[in-house]
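Next comes this protein:
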Amino acid sequence: MRTALVTGASGQDGQHLCRLLVSKGYRVFGAVRPRADGISESRSGVVPGVVPLEVDITHHDAVIAAVEQSAPDEVYNLAAQSSVIGGETNRLATAEINGLGAIRVLEAVRDRFPKARFCQASSSRIFGGEPGTRTEQSSIFPASSYGAAKAWAHGEVVRARQVGGVHASNAILFNHESPFRPPHYVTRKISAAAARIALGDSTPVVLGNLDAIRDWGWAPDYVEAMWRMVQHPIGDDYVIATGIAHTVADFCDVAFAHVGLHWRDHVTTDVTLVRSDEPAIIGDASHARKQLGWSPTRTFTEVVRAMVDADLVALSPAHEPI
């Protein structure tokens, strides 16, 4: 039985990855951040079958203790301040968690279990510049504090691999969604609104820039890619993306059409929600296809419909929360 340590285990990707690893017979330790109110996230946000660990990755000793307790063969660092907007309002915390936090985990692994394989959840936000397609060789020029912190961690993973001899990989993840996406994200706002309105609530959903462009994929596919990176004989960096661009309006169109509605009848915009957007970029996952045999299993339309279906179930009067 192989052992894996997953940080950020209660997040969207953490839950999907933990489910995948448990299904493959791993012993999985899931690290989650202790809550200030004293109510453990481990009781509500970690997948059944996973051993929960409360770890604040801004604390060096706590990270070392988690690594020593789990004694992992594989480590997946998914812990992050996940909001780009939040990253701008609290730059220090973003740098501390997304940058230095990732480095703490990497260093603890390298010092205590140097033969363990490491995967960092990097991000398309490390790229900037003009709109277009990005590969692993594209220039790193982040346009946000979130992207800058991710770029810092990304570079340290490359250095650990090239200089330190660690089996370390960066998963350069473009946008990816699922029903586990938190409700304040625009994708869940849309899918939940479509479900809610289909069930009889006529309150419109208020959004910002409907023309914002993203390369959206299916989250379970993306964590599968991370697992494949760790199984590959050598560590490397991989863009994980669909290579197809869609707008927020496209997301609305598919979501509302799935429940027999026209999105323009139920969506309003608020200029205060429109923010300076990052370049419209898509990812070229050719390297992952060639080296890992990875490719997306769901189309954009299938992703959106799956999210709406999940929200229909969750918002149904007959639904009982688990």
